[in-house]
Amino acid sequence: MSARRVATAGGAGPRPPKARPPVVRRATPDDITEILSIETRNNPVPWSRQLFAKELDRREGAMLVAVDADAVVGFIACAGQGDSWHILNVTVDAGHRRRGIGGMLVDGVIAALDGRPYDRYTLEVRVSNDAAIRLYRARGFVDCGVRPRYYSDNQEDALIMWREPQEDAG
Question: What is the pLDDT of residues 61-119, one digit of tens each?
Fold first, then answer.
């Protein structure tokens, strides 16, 4: 018997299996340790375990995680405040950035919360975080002001952004 090689375009042999994209889902108490680890590695003034637990238990809001190969690689926390949703924290672990995970998290929280009961969103972002600002603008957020010296670690200003209700296309 002879072995036959499966030909592929270009003759390079069989292709490796296609990697599954990350999945966005609601966070659970079991995720807090991984969330806290990502937060500590990536944010100069990290939230505490107690703050994450409080946000996870919040009735009016959502905390989502992005999971890749059974590991949490990012998260988003969003809470109802006044008459709108306030995106409080979005973090993607450094080794997983530039893969669309931040966008998946923002899209996921909007899908989970939009119109329940609010349809407006706000957030603050470091004025130096160009990648995040581009991501938010691409999702309908607009610049609405600046909070001077908002970040306690270096006194950096925060750009205030808002996303108003989106008109239905069609």
Answer: 999 999 999 999 999 999 999 999 999 999 999 999 999 999 999 999 999 998 888 99
Tell me the three state secondary structure of residue 130. Answer: helix
Q: Does the active-site annotation cover 39? A: no
Extract the tokens encoding 153. Answer: 């670690």
Which residue among the candidates 124, 151, 156, 164 is catalytic per the annotation?
124
Does residue 30 lie within any of the structural domains?
yes
| φ, ψ (nearest 5 deg) of residue 129 | -90, 75
Which is catalytic among the residues 55, 121, 136, 164? Answer: 136
| 3-state SS assignment for residue 77 | strand
* Range(s) of the domain holding residue 154: 23-163
CATH number at residue 116: 3.40.630.30
Is 34 tagged catalytic?
no
- The model's pLDDT over 15-67, given as tens digits with 9 standing for 90+, comes to 655 668 899 999 999 999 999 999 999 999 999 999 999 999 998 999 999 99
- Whether residue 146 is contained in a domain is answered as yes
Q: Is residue 135 part of a domain?
A: yes
